[in-house]
Amino acid sequence: VLVHGGGVLSLRWALPVGPPPCYRVQSARFEVEGMDLKMESPMNQESIWSARYRDAGDDYLFGTAPNRFLAHRAGLLQDGRTALSVADGEGRNSVWLAEQGLEVTAIEISAVAIEKAQRLARGRNVDVHCLQADMLAPGWPPASMHDAFDWVIGIFIQFVGPEWRERQFDAMKQLTRPGGRILLQGYTPKQLEYRTGGPSAVENLYTTELLREAFADWVIEELTEYEDDVDEGHGHRGRSALIGMVARKPGG
């Protein structure tokens, strides 16, 4: 099922039977030929996340300001034209990226979050192309999105454990063009001492060694563990144990 309206593209799909569908990106629309699509995956948490964002009411669960690690690299982001924000939530990062002059696509599983992101984008007079999708679904991303983005941004996307993290990172790598970059911000295991945001499962958290191994075939331009006082809405607030990475895909 493909729904496009009000600035929101909703794409729901599962592993196809027979030949794969043809996806074409034209004016930020994904056209699907030859099949009906329904999204299913073991990590489909749309209802859980939509409930969290809905319970926040008119407030934004993680605020409307961009993540600080991302914002402090505004100059570096100009080395590119297109950006994809994965698990984008209510739009605080994708809207800020659009304000920097980038052509921005946001992937988010929650329909409620997408509606709030679009509201934020309209209020700031920028365009963000929103795609409702489960990035862990079989066969994702579609071939037409491979090597498509100069920047792929993942801010606090540690909602998966080791059994799904490789799949998550592989999808992000496929989306990045040769010479493009992935920017990650996450929590380290020490965050469990602070409990000011993030998952409670230590296996979901990042270490320098974990990210070096996961991106061993990429050029790691920056990788740092540090602590900071975070103020991101009601969801992330207080002293936090953080890690940030910028890695460049070979080629290009």
Automatic annotation (TrEMBL):
This is Putative SAM-dependent methyltransferase. One of its GO terms (molecular function) is methyltransferase activity. It comes from the Bacteria. The keyword Transferase applies. Keywords: Methyltransferase, Transferase. One of its GO terms (biological process) is methylation. Residues 84-180 form the Methyltransferase domain.
